[in-house]
Protein backbone atom coordinates (compact mmCIF):
# COMPACT_ATOMS: atom_id res chain seq x y z
CA UNK A 1 0.00 0.00 0.00
CA UNK A 2 1.28 3.45 -0.92
CA UNK A 3 2.43 5.74 1.87
CA UNK A 4 0.16 8.79 1.73
CA UNK A 5 0.93 12.32 2.79
CA UNK A 6 -1.34 14.05 5.28
CA UNK A 7 -2.91 16.02 2.43
CA UNK A 8 -3.57 12.88 0.39
CA UNK A 9 -5.16 11.18 3.39
CA UNK A 10 -7.43 14.17 3.89
CA UNK A 11 -8.37 14.15 0.19
CA UNK A 12 -9.15 10.42 0.27
CA UNK A 13 -11.26 10.77 3.41
CA UNK A 14 -13.15 13.74 1.96
CA UNK A 15 -13.90 11.76 -1.20
CA UNK A 16 -14.97 8.75 0.87
CA UNK A 17 -17.33 10.81 3.03
CA UNK A 18 -18.84 12.65 0.07
CA UNK A 19 -19.36 9.51 -2.01
CA UNK A 20 -20.86 7.57 0.89
CA UNK A 21 -23.17 10.36 2.06
CA UNK A 22 -24.00 12.32 -1.09
CA UNK A 23 -23.51 9.81 -3.89
CA UNK A 24 -24.40 6.28 -2.73
CA UNK A 25 -25.30 3.54 -5.18
CA UNK A 26 -28.93 4.62 -4.92
CA UNK A 27 -27.91 7.91 -6.57
CA UNK A 28 -26.51 6.00 -9.54
CA UNK A 29 -29.77 4.04 -9.74
CA UNK A 30 -31.63 7.34 -10.15
CA UNK A 31 -29.23 8.40 -12.92
CA UNK A 32 -29.72 5.06 -14.65
CA UNK A 33 -33.49 5.30 -14.41
CA UNK A 34 -33.46 8.87 -15.77
CA UNK A 35 -31.98 7.42 -18.98
CA UNK A 36 -30.28 10.62 -20.11
CA UNK A 37 -27.47 10.49 -22.65
CA UNK A 38 -24.96 12.33 -20.44
CA UNK A 39 -25.08 9.46 -17.96
CA UNK A 40 -24.22 11.45 -14.84
CA UNK A 41 -25.76 13.97 -12.44
CA UNK A 42 -24.82 17.52 -13.42
CA UNK A 43 -25.22 18.74 -9.84
CA UNK A 44 -22.81 16.12 -8.51
CA UNK A 45 -20.31 17.05 -11.22
CA UNK A 46 -20.53 20.72 -10.25
CA UNK A 47 -19.85 19.77 -6.64
CA UNK A 48 -16.77 17.79 -7.66
CA UNK A 49 -15.50 20.83 -9.51
CA UNK A 50 -16.11 23.04 -6.46
CA UNK A 51 -14.08 20.60 -4.34
CA UNK A 52 -11.20 20.92 -6.81
CA UNK A 53 -11.19 17.34 -8.06
CA UNK A 54 -11.40 18.38 -11.70
CA UNK A 55 -8.01 20.10 -11.47
CA UNK A 56 -6.01 17.63 -9.38
CA UNK A 57 -3.48 16.79 -12.13
CA UNK A 58 -3.48 20.25 -13.74
CA UNK A 59 -0.71 22.72 -12.77
CA UNK A 60 -1.51 25.73 -10.62
CA UNK A 61 -0.61 28.03 -13.51
CA UNK A 62 -3.60 26.64 -15.42
CA UNK A 63 -6.03 26.71 -12.50
CA UNK A 64 -5.40 23.29 -10.99
CA UNK A 65 -3.75 22.06 -7.80
CA UNK A 66 -1.01 19.88 -9.35
CA UNK A 67 -1.66 17.27 -6.68
CA UNK A 68 -0.58 14.32 -8.78
CA UNK A 69 -1.95 11.12 -10.26
CA UNK A 70 -1.89 9.09 -7.05
CA UNK A 71 -4.10 11.73 -5.45
CA UNK A 72 -6.53 11.60 -8.38
CA UNK A 73 -6.49 7.81 -8.21
CA UNK A 74 -7.54 7.95 -4.55
CA UNK A 75 -10.59 10.02 -5.49
CA UNK A 76 -11.47 7.79 -8.46
CA UNK A 77 -11.21 4.72 -6.21
CA UNK A 78 -13.63 6.17 -3.66
CA UNK A 79 -16.10 7.13 -6.40
CA UNK A 80 -15.81 3.61 -7.78
CA UNK A 81 -16.96 2.17 -4.46
CA UNK A 82 -20.37 3.79 -4.86
CA UNK A 83 -20.49 3.51 -8.67
CA UNK A 84 -20.61 7.29 -8.95
CA UNK A 85 -20.84 8.31 -12.60
CA UNK A 86 -18.85 11.36 -13.70
CA UNK A 87 -16.54 12.55 -16.52
CA UNK A 88 -13.67 12.95 -14.03
CA UNK A 89 -11.43 10.21 -15.44
CA UNK A 90 -12.20 11.06 -19.07
CA UNK A 91 -11.47 14.78 -18.62
CA UNK A 92 -8.27 14.07 -16.68
CA UNK A 93 -7.05 11.74 -19.43
CA UNK A 94 -7.75 14.36 -22.09
CA UNK A 95 -6.02 16.99 -19.95
CA UNK A 96 -3.00 14.67 -19.74
CA UNK A 97 -2.74 14.70 -23.53
CA UNK A 98 -2.66 18.49 -23.55
CA UNK A 99 -0.16 18.58 -20.70
CA UNK A 100 2.16 16.12 -22.43
CA UNK A 101 1.84 17.30 -26.01
CA UNK A 102 0.24 20.73 -26.06
CA UNK A 103 1.86 24.07 -26.74
CA UNK A 104 1.79 26.79 -24.12
CA UNK A 105 -1.06 28.42 -26.02
CA UNK A 106 -3.05 25.17 -26.13
CA UNK A 107 -2.51 24.63 -22.42
CA UNK A 108 -3.60 28.16 -21.62
CA UNK A 109 -6.75 27.87 -23.73
CA UNK A 110 -8.03 24.51 -22.55
CA UNK A 111 -6.62 23.45 -19.19
CA UNK A 112 -8.21 26.21 -17.05
CA UNK A 113 -11.63 25.31 -18.43
CA UNK A 114 -11.06 21.61 -17.69
CA UNK A 115 -9.72 22.41 -14.21
CA UNK A 116 -12.82 24.45 -13.36
CA UNK A 117 -15.20 21.72 -14.56
CA UNK A 118 -16.68 24.12 -17.11
CA UNK A 119 -15.48 21.93 -19.98
CA UNK A 120 -15.83 18.17 -20.28
CA UNK A 121 -13.07 16.72 -22.43
CA UNK A 122 -12.47 13.14 -23.52
CA UNK A 123 -10.23 10.89 -25.59
CA UNK A 124 -11.46 9.51 -28.92
CA UNK A 125 -9.17 6.64 -29.91
CA UNK A 126 -10.87 3.30 -30.59
CA UNK A 127 -12.36 2.63 -34.01
CA UNK A 128 -13.27 -1.02 -33.47
CA UNK A 129 -14.64 -3.24 -30.69
CA UNK A 130 -11.26 -3.54 -28.95
CA UNK A 131 -8.57 -1.13 -27.88
CA UNK A 132 -5.95 -1.15 -30.63
CA UNK A 133 -3.82 2.00 -30.95
CA UNK A 134 -2.07 0.50 -33.97
CA UNK A 135 -5.34 0.39 -35.92
CA UNK A 136 -6.18 4.06 -36.52
CA UNK A 137 -7.76 5.16 -39.81
CA UNK A 138 -8.98 8.68 -38.92
CA UNK A 139 -6.98 11.25 -40.86
CA UNK A 140 -6.49 14.97 -41.16
CA UNK A 141 -6.13 16.76 -44.46
CA UNK A 142 -5.89 20.54 -44.68
CA UNK A 143 -6.75 20.93 -41.02
CA UNK A 144 -9.98 18.94 -41.40
CA UNK A 145 -10.53 15.62 -39.60
CA UNK A 146 -12.48 12.70 -41.04
CA UNK A 147 -13.15 9.37 -39.35
CA UNK A 148 -15.33 7.55 -36.86
CA UNK A 149 -14.58 6.62 -33.26
CA UNK A 150 -16.64 3.71 -32.03
CA UNK A 151 -16.76 3.94 -28.23
CA UNK A 152 -16.00 7.36 -26.76
CA UNK A 153 -16.51 7.59 -23.01
CA UNK A 154 -18.45 10.74 -22.06
CA UNK A 155 -18.80 11.50 -25.75
CA UNK A 156 -22.41 12.60 -25.27
CA UNK A 157 -21.49 15.59 -23.11
CA UNK A 158 -17.92 16.35 -24.19
CA UNK A 159 -17.13 19.80 -25.51
CA UNK A 160 -13.60 18.87 -26.53
CA UNK A 161 -12.26 15.68 -28.10
CA UNK A 162 -8.62 14.62 -28.14
CA UNK A 163 -8.67 12.50 -31.28
CA UNK A 164 -6.13 9.92 -32.41
CA UNK A 165 -5.43 10.24 -36.15
CA UNK A 166 -2.90 8.55 -38.41
CA UNK A 167 -0.27 11.20 -37.76
CA UNK A 168 -0.83 12.16 -34.12
CA UNK A 169 -3.33 13.58 -31.63
CA UNK A 170 -5.65 16.45 -32.50
CA UNK A 171 -7.93 18.78 -30.55
CA UNK A 172 -11.45 18.98 -31.94
CA UNK A 173 -14.27 21.05 -30.48
CA UNK A 174 -17.81 19.70 -30.48
CA UNK A 175 -19.85 21.46 -33.16
CA UNK A 176 -19.64 21.69 -36.93
CA UNK A 177 -18.41 18.50 -38.54
CA UNK A 178 -18.88 16.45 -35.36
CA UNK A 179 -21.89 14.16 -34.94
CA UNK A 180 -22.53 12.10 -31.83
CA UNK A 181 -24.68 8.97 -31.64
CA UNK A 182 -25.53 7.45 -28.28
CA UNK A 183 -24.49 3.84 -27.67
CA UNK A 184 -26.10 1.66 -25.02
CA UNK A 185 -23.61 -0.57 -23.23
CA UNK A 186 -24.18 -2.88 -20.29
CA UNK A 187 -23.06 -0.32 -17.70
CA UNK A 188 -25.52 2.33 -18.97
CA UNK A 189 -22.85 5.04 -18.81
CA UNK A 190 -22.12 7.51 -21.59
CA UNK A 191 -20.48 5.78 -24.57
CA UNK A 192 -20.92 7.45 -27.94
CA UNK A 193 -20.03 6.83 -31.55
CA UNK A 194 -18.51 10.06 -32.76
CA UNK A 195 -18.20 10.78 -36.46
CA UNK A 196 -15.90 13.52 -37.70
CA UNK A 197 -16.70 14.80 -41.16
CA UNK A 198 -14.45 17.70 -42.06
CA UNK A 199 -14.23 18.90 -38.47
CA UNK A 200 -11.67 21.61 -37.72
CA UNK A 201 -8.70 19.95 -36.02
CA UNK A 202 -5.68 21.40 -34.28
CA UNK A 203 -2.70 19.11 -33.81
CA UNK A 204 -1.05 18.91 -30.43
CA UNK A 205 2.24 20.71 -30.79
CA UNK A 206 4.46 17.93 -29.46
CA UNK A 207 2.77 14.84 -30.84
CA UNK A 208 5.68 12.39 -30.78
CA UNK A 209 5.38 8.70 -31.49
CA UNK A 210 5.02 7.83 -27.82
CA UNK A 211 2.35 10.40 -26.97
CA UNK A 212 -0.66 8.18 -27.60
CA UNK A 213 0.88 5.37 -25.54
CA UNK A 214 1.60 7.74 -22.66
CA UNK A 215 -1.92 9.16 -22.69
CA UNK A 216 -3.57 5.74 -22.99
CA UNK A 217 -1.45 4.51 -20.06
CA UNK A 218 -2.86 7.26 -17.88
CA UNK A 219 -6.41 6.47 -18.93
CA UNK A 220 -5.81 2.76 -18.27
CA UNK A 221 -4.46 3.35 -14.77
CA UNK A 222 -7.41 5.59 -13.89
CA UNK A 223 -9.79 2.87 -15.08
CA UNK A 224 -7.84 0.46 -12.87
CA UNK A 225 -8.32 2.77 -9.88
CA UNK A 226 -12.08 2.75 -10.43
CA UNK A 227 -12.03 -1.03 -10.70
CA UNK A 228 -10.07 -1.22 -7.44
CA UNK A 229 -12.74 0.77 -5.65
CA UNK A 230 -15.47 -1.42 -7.10
CA UNK A 231 -13.65 -4.63 -6.16
CA UNK A 232 -13.12 -3.47 -2.58
CA UNK A 233 -16.76 -2.48 -2.16
CA UNK A 234 -17.91 -5.77 -3.73
CA UNK A 235 -15.75 -7.70 -1.28
CA UNK A 236 -17.16 -5.83 1.73
CA UNK A 237 -20.74 -6.32 0.50
CA UNK A 238 -20.21 -10.03 -0.08
CA UNK A 239 -18.55 -10.58 3.29
CA UNK A 240 -21.38 -8.80 5.09
CA UNK A 241 -23.94 -10.94 3.23
CA UNK A 242 -22.15 -14.19 4.11
CA UNK A 243 -22.10 -13.19 7.77
CA UNK A 244 -25.87 -12.73 7.95
CA UNK A 245 -27.30 -15.23 5.41
CA UNK A 246 -28.44 -18.52 6.95
CA UNK A 247 -28.57 -21.67 4.83
CA UNK A 248 -28.89 -25.30 5.93
CA UNK A 249 -29.32 -24.02 9.47
CA UNK A 250 -25.94 -22.28 9.49
CA UNK A 251 -24.57 -18.84 8.72
CA UNK A 252 -22.83 -19.05 5.33
CA UNK A 253 -19.64 -17.48 6.71
CA UNK A 254 -19.08 -20.58 8.87
CA UNK A 255 -18.55 -22.82 5.82
CA UNK A 256 -14.82 -23.39 5.35
CA UNK A 257 -15.06 -23.55 1.56
CA UNK A 258 -16.54 -20.05 1.47
CA UNK A 259 -13.96 -18.79 3.95
CA UNK A 260 -11.22 -20.00 1.60
CA UNK A 261 -12.82 -18.23 -1.35
CA UNK A 262 -13.07 -14.96 0.56
CA UNK A 263 -9.48 -15.24 1.79
CA UNK A 264 -8.32 -15.74 -1.80
CA UNK A 265 -10.32 -12.73 -2.94
CA UNK A 266 -8.86 -10.56 -0.19
CA UNK A 267 -5.32 -11.53 -1.20
CA UNK A 268 -6.01 -10.86 -4.87
CA UNK A 269 -7.48 -7.42 -4.15
CA UNK A 270 -4.40 -6.49 -2.11
CA UNK A 271 -2.19 -7.49 -5.05
CA UNK A 272 -4.44 -5.42 -7.31
CA UNK A 273 -4.02 -2.45 -4.97
CA UNK A 274 -0.24 -2.74 -5.10
CA UNK A 275 -0.23 -2.83 -8.89
CA UNK A 276 -2.65 0.10 -9.28
CA UNK A 277 -0.89 2.33 -6.77
CA UNK A 278 2.45 1.47 -8.37
CA UNK A 279 1.04 2.54 -11.73
CA UNK A 280 -0.19 5.86 -10.35
CA UNK A 281 3.11 6.48 -8.58
CA UNK A 282 5.05 5.68 -11.76
CA UNK A 283 3.13 8.40 -13.61
CA UNK A 284 3.92 10.88 -10.85
CA UNK A 285 7.63 10.01 -11.07
CA UNK A 286 7.69 10.56 -14.84
CA UNK A 287 9.62 8.64 -17.45
CA UNK A 288 8.56 5.35 -19.05
CA UNK A 289 5.22 4.27 -17.58
CA UNK A 290 4.40 1.46 -20.01
CA UNK A 291 5.24 -1.57 -17.88
CA UNK A 292 3.69 -0.16 -14.71
CA UNK A 293 0.50 0.80 -16.55
CA UNK A 294 0.14 -2.60 -18.21
CA UNK A 295 0.77 -4.38 -14.92
CA UNK A 296 -1.87 -2.23 -13.22
CA UNK A 297 -4.55 -2.66 -15.90
CA UNK A 298 -3.78 -6.33 -16.51
CA UNK A 299 -4.07 -7.17 -12.81
CA UNK A 300 -7.13 -4.98 -12.38
CA UNK A 301 -8.85 -6.76 -15.26
CA UNK A 302 -8.14 -10.21 -13.81
CA UNK A 303 -9.08 -9.43 -10.21
CA UNK A 304 -12.03 -7.22 -11.13
CA UNK A 305 -13.46 -10.01 -13.27
CA UNK A 306 -12.97 -12.56 -10.50
CA UNK A 307 -14.44 -10.41 -7.73
CA UNK A 308 -17.49 -9.32 -9.69
CA UNK A 309 -18.18 -12.92 -10.69
CA UNK A 310 -17.84 -14.14 -7.10
CA UNK A 311 -20.05 -11.26 -5.96
CA UNK A 312 -22.90 -12.66 -8.03
CA UNK A 313 -22.23 -16.33 -7.27
CA UNK A 314 -21.92 -15.92 -3.51
CA UNK A 315 -25.12 -13.90 -3.34
CA UNK A 316 -26.98 -16.54 -5.31
CA UNK A 317 -30.22 -15.71 -7.10
CA UNK A 318 -30.65 -12.31 -5.45
CA UNK A 319 -27.41 -11.15 -7.04
CA UNK A 320 -29.00 -11.43 -10.48
CA UNK A 321 -31.98 -9.21 -9.73
CA UNK A 322 -32.20 -5.56 -10.77
CA UNK A 323 -33.47 -4.66 -7.31
CA UNK A 324 -30.10 -5.62 -5.87
CA UNK A 325 -27.00 -3.50 -6.53
CA UNK A 326 -24.61 -6.37 -7.32
CA UNK A 327 -25.53 -6.38 -10.99
CA UNK A 328 -24.42 -2.77 -11.40
CA UNK A 329 -20.92 -3.72 -10.30
CA UNK A 330 -20.77 -6.70 -12.64
CA UNK A 331 -21.87 -4.66 -15.67
CA UNK A 332 -19.58 -1.71 -15.04
CA UNK A 333 -16.65 -4.02 -14.36
CA UNK A 334 -17.10 -5.87 -17.66
CA UNK A 335 -17.06 -2.60 -19.61
CA UNK A 336 -13.98 -1.29 -17.80
CA UNK A 337 -12.17 -4.58 -18.49
CA UNK A 338 -12.35 -3.83 -22.21
CA UNK A 339 -11.50 -0.14 -22.04
CA UNK A 340 -7.85 0.73 -22.72
CA UNK A 341 -6.89 -2.90 -23.22
CA UNK A 342 -8.18 -6.19 -21.88
CA UNK A 343 -6.13 -8.65 -19.81
CA UNK A 344 -4.74 -10.47 -22.86
CA UNK A 345 -3.63 -7.20 -24.45
CA UNK A 346 -1.74 -6.05 -21.38
CA UNK A 347 -0.18 -9.45 -20.65
CA UNK A 348 1.19 -9.50 -24.18
CA UNK A 349 2.37 -5.90 -23.98
CA UNK A 350 4.07 -6.42 -20.65
CA UNK A 351 5.86 -9.50 -21.98
CA UNK A 352 7.08 -7.62 -25.06
CA UNK A 353 8.30 -4.72 -22.95
CA UNK A 354 10.14 -7.20 -20.74
CA UNK A 355 11.96 -8.70 -23.72
CA UNK A 356 9.99 -11.90 -24.12
UniProtKB/TrEMBL annotation:
Domain Acyl-CoA dehydrogenase/oxidase C-terminal: 221-352
Cofactor (UniProt): FAD
GO MF terms, alphabetically ordered: acyl-CoA dehydrogenase activity; flavin adenine dinucleotide binding
Pfam families: Acyl-CoA_dh_1, Acyl-CoA_dh_N
Superkingdom: Bacteria
Acyl-CoA dehydrogenase/oxidase N-terminal domain sequence ranges: 5-118
PANTHER family: ACYL-COA DEHYDROGENASE, ACYL-COA DEHYDROGENASE FADE28
Family the UniProt entry places it in: Belongs to the acyl-CoA dehydrogenase family.
Protein's recorded name: Acyl-CoA dehydrogenase
Amino acid sequence: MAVLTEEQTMLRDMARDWAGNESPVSAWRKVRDANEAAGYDAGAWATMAEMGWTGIIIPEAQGGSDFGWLSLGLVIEELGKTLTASPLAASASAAAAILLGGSEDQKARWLPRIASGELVATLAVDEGPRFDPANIAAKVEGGKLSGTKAFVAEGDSAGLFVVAATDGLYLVEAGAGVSVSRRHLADFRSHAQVTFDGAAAEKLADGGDGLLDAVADRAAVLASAEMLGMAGAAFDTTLAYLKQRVQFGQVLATFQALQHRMANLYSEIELMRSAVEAGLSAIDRGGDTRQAASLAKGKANEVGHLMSRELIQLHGGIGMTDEYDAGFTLKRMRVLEQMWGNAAYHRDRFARLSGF
